[in-house]
What we know:
With 87 residues, this protein is an all-alpha fold. 78% of the residues lie in helices and 0% in strands.
Amino acid sequence: xxxxxxxxxxxxxxxxxxxxxxxxxxxxxxxxxxxxxxxxxxxxxxxxxxxxxxxxxxxxxxxxxxxxxxxxxxxxxxxxxxxxxxx
Length: 87
């Protein structure tokens, strides 16, 4: 059981790291056709897109600052804690 908890925790930490990496990459001018950029984008977009769409529907998103990564990391933290508490 301990191994399952550690694996779940590790999975969510990797997702957090990828989202933070995407935030940092958006601040610096990286080649959007580069392999690292494309990989991080492909792994995080399925997570961030629903939050971005929700914020746009609520009238909060679509501006200069994208709050979807913050909302995604917060939500992933809640989901991680919930899953770990069930195990």
